[in-house]
């Protein structure tokens, strides 16, 4: 018998199109279409071809560097080890169907945490050993590594343990070290703390490592290294997971039975988040839930998964649900290569290898389309105000230091110059200075439109700054004559002559008035090199230098809402104006030269920039997550086209970034050669472009 539903489910999980399935199975596309639309019956030989193709695809290793992990629990039946064993198995089958590769159960889940003196009973401990023996064999039938909490008697002592299983083997036994013996806790009455050093025990016919200085390493995916601790171990000054992380563990698991009291959930969430942040790891916290004794306590099943300080998933208290998430261990290793450079005197952990093909599951992790911009509106407003405060205080400090009276800004009626002007006005307010000492200069030329010029004039008047107009057409035409440039040829020389003339005017006005030139260029333009060298590329102090274009837009929108009325209306129209340097003659007084038509959508480039620099992702990985994230807006060919342009321009334009002016850093991604980014100007992009070759062939680019 065969079941089309099974094929549909695997096909859905793998996100395999009918065309791709036809290609890998050899079944004609028309036949595949009819089968999955229900127009034709499925023959046995066809079913086998489709099943084999889908199964082979399913066995491929995950190449995104992510691992699906689960913090799971179930309704424990106190002291009924066999029933709890059955529930563990059922939960493992559920997780296996979802492609979860690391499954973490709660503390002492085979018996229940609230067993008190019953832990001394030999009948209970023998039943636990029998259950662990059964789980050892059962682990052959699920594609995961899993950790089960249980009491164990070793050398006459009882320990609170986590037992690690994978592929029919017991990999190791982690032992709880810190046994709470205060308030409602009295674990030290029954259990012994973890021995200071690991040792091997004879357990269920195997020599098994016993202790808490253990790191489990997937030999098929070396970035996947796992450490384990138990409940209270996390709450002490130096948790075992810290030692494990410093020994390479990228995923730290905690089997917990943390009772609930007022305010504890928030503190628990914070401590899990903080531990994942300071150890640059993923942290999987599984908490006991319904079924534990309520004689004196209640347990809420607060499962949490965090990665590098960010909560990826958590369950509602008393919901009885599991927390499952994708964690990016390759990103964590990238972060560690940047930050784990201190020398710590920590014990060495023993490494236990296992072989696990992580499920090539359908990607579920969501990536923000605008990673530089918070999605929460309240948080966005708070972030916008803080960024504007940083920018304006940076400029204030510079103006104070050089005893500068005048700030000179080229105002175009576009986004970047509007933001620079708004920041400068804030700086002058902080200094207690008259905004009329700000000199805003509009310099119309061949591409200037009435709309942008009027917006520039209105904004300066409404903000109370001094406006000066310098029409540069005649100067540029004279310069064309001097260098032999045909004014009808609108090439790069035609454009750059205007950009450099504007910069010259600004610096000369600044010299004449004892001022400095405020730069308007942003981070996105720097990444793409979308600036004229020694033209708009240059200034005395660049306030927008670490603000990407997508964030510039939100900062201006924030100020528009805050000012309201006339200023808000002008800023809103600026937001609606196409981004353009206005260096090519307009058509019917409309902008002809639109930046995003030429270099690509800034929403894509800022996405590429963030994950290229901040996360260190490969071009292939950036493409894959972009394809998932922007599936409703851009097709694969479009994303590949602009990603290739991003890489080419990023490498070829480094020479401009090597000599950019001073400007305050506001985020974790900046390109200052004195700060976060050092790169030779003559570096070759071949390695990065070659990684796109396979994708271009696949999508016919």
What is the structure about, briefly put?
The chain is of the alpha/beta class and 701 residues long.
How would you describe this structure to a colleague?
The protein is built from 23 helices and 20 strands. With 701 residues, the protein is an alpha/beta fold. It has three domains: 4-59, 434 Repressor (Amino-terminal Domain) (Orthogonal Bundle), CATH 1.10.260; 66-354, Nitrilase/N-carbamoyl-D-aminoacid amidohydrolase (4-Layer Sandwich), CATH 3.60.110; 377-698, Rossmann fold. The longest helix has 25 residues, at 377-401.
List the helices and strands and how they pair.
Layout: H1 4-14, H2 18-25, H3 29-37, H4 44-59, E1 66-71, H5 81-97, E2 102-104, H6 122-138, E3 145-154, E4 157-166, E5 169-175, E6 199-203, E7 206-211, E8 214-218, E9 225-230, H7 240-246, E10 251-256, H8 264-278, E11 282-287, E12 304-307, E13 310-314, E14 323-328, H9 329-339, E15 350-354, H10 377-401, E16 406-410, H11 415-431, E17 438-442, H12 450-463, E18 466-469, H13 473-483, H14 492-513, E19 515-519, H15 523-528, E20 541-542, H16 549-563, H17 565-576, H18 595-599, H19 602-614, H20 619-629, H21 636-652, H22 654-657, H23 686-698
Parallel strand pairs: 1-2, 2-3, 5-7, 8-15, 9-10, 10-11, 16-17, 16-19, 17-18, 19-20
Antiparallel strand pairs: 1-14, 3-4, 4-5, 6-7, 8-9, 11-12, 12-13
Q: In angstroms, what separates the terminal alpha carbons?
A: 42 Å
Helix content: 40-55%
CATH architecture classification name of the largest domain: 3-Layer(aba) Sandwich
CATH fold-level name of the largest domain: Rossmann fold
Strand content: 15-25%
Strand order of the largest sheet: 6-7-5-4-3-2-1-14
CATH class of the largest domain: Alpha Beta
The tally of structural domains comes to: 3
The whole-number mean of residue pLDDT values reads 93
Oligomeric form: single chain
Task: Tell me the Rg in angstroms.
Answer: 31 Å
For the secondary structure, the number of strands is 20
How would you classify the helix and strand content by structural class? alpha/beta
SS element count, helices: 23
> How would a textbook summarize the main sheet?
8 strands, mixed
Outline: elongated
Low-confidence stretches: 57-61
- CATH level 4 superfamily of the largest domain: HUPs
């Amino acid at each position: 018998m065969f079941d089309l539903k099974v094929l549909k489910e695997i096909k859905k999980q793998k996100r395999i199109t009918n065309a791709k399935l036809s290609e890998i199975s050899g079944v004609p596309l028309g036949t595949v279409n009819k089968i999955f639309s229900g127009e034709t019956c499925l023959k046995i030989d066809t079913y086998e071809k489709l099943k084999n193709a889908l199964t082979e695809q399913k066995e491929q290793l995950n190449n995104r560097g992510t691992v699906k992990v689960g913090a799971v629990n179930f309704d424990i039946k106190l002291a009924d080890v066999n029933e709890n064993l059955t529930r563990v198995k059922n939960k493992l089958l559920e997780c296996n169907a979802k492609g979860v590769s690391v499954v973490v159960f709660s503390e002492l889940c085979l018996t229940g945490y609230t067993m008190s003196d019953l832990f001394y009973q030999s009948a209970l401990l023998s039943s636990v050993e029998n259950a662990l023996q059964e789980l050892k064999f059962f682990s052959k039938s699920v594609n995961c590594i899993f950790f089960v909490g249980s009491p164990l008697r070793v050398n006459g002592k009882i320990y609170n343990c986590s037992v690690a299983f994978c592929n029919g083997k017991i990999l190791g036994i982690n032992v709880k070290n810190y046994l709470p013996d205060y308030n409602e806790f009295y674990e030290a009455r029954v259990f012994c703390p973890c021995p200071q050093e690991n040792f091997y025990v004879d357990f269920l016919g195997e020599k098994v490592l016993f202790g808490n200085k253990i790191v489990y390493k997937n030999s098929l995916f070396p970035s996947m290294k796992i450490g384990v601790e138990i409940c209270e171990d996390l709450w002490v000054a130096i948790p075992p997971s810290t030692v494990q992380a410093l020994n390479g563990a990228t995923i730290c698991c905690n089997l917990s039975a943390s009772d609930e009291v007022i305010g504890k959930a928030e503190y628990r969430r914070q401590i899990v988040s903080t531990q994942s942040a300071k150890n640059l790891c993923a942290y999987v916290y599984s908490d006991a839930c319904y079924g534990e004794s309520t004689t004196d306590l209640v347990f809420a099943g607060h499962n949490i998964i965090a990665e590098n300080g960010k909560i990826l998933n958590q369950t509602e208290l008393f919901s009885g649900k599991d927390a499952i998430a994708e964690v990016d261990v390759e990103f964590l290793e990238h972060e560690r290569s940047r930050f784990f450079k201190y020398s710590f005197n920590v014990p060495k952990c023993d490494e236990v290898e296992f072989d696990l093909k992580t499920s090539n599951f359908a990607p579920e992790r969501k990536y923000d389309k605008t990673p530089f911009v918070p999605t929460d509106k309240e948080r966005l407003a708070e972030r916008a105000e803080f960024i504007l405060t940083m920018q304006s205080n940076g400029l204030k400090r510079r103006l104070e230091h050089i005893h500068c009276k005048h700030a000179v800004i080229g105002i175009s009626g576009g986004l970047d110059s509007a933001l620079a002007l708004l920041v400068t006005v804030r700086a002058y307010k902080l200094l207690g200075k008259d905004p009329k000492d700000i000199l805003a200069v509009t310099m119309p030329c061949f591409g200037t439109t009435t709309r942008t010029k009027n917006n520039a004039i209105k904004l300066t008047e409404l903000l109370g700054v001094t406006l000066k107009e310098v029409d540069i057409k005649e100067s540029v035409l004279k310069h064309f004559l001097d260098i032999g440039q045909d004014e009808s040829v609108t090439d790069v020389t035609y454009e750059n002559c205007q950009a450099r003339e504007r910069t010259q005017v600004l610096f000369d006005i600044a010299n004449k008035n004892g001022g400095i030139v405020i730069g308007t260029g942003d981070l996105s333009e720097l990444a793409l090199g979308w600036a004229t060298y020694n033209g708009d590329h240059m200034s005395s102090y660049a306030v927008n230098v670490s603000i990407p274009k997508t964030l510039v837009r939100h900062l201006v929108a924030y100020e528009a809402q805050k000012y309201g009325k006339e200023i808000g209306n002008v800023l809103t129209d600026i937001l609606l104006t196409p981004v353009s340097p206005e260096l090519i003659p307009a058509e019917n007084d409309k902008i002809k030269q639109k930046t995003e038509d030429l270099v690509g959508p800034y929403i894509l480039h800022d996405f590429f920039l963030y994950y290229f620099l901040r996360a260190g992702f490969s071009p292939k990985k950036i493409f894959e997550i972009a394809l998932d994230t922007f599936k409703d807006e851009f097709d694969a060919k479009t994303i590949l086209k602009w990603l290739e342009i991003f890489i080419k321009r990023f490498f070829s334009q480094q020479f401009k970034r090597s000599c950019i002016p001073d400007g305050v850093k506001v985020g974790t991604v900046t390109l200052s050669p004195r700060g976060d980014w050092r790169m030779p100007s003559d570096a070759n992009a071949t390695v990065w472009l070659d990684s796109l070759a396979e994708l271009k062939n696949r999508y016919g680019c």
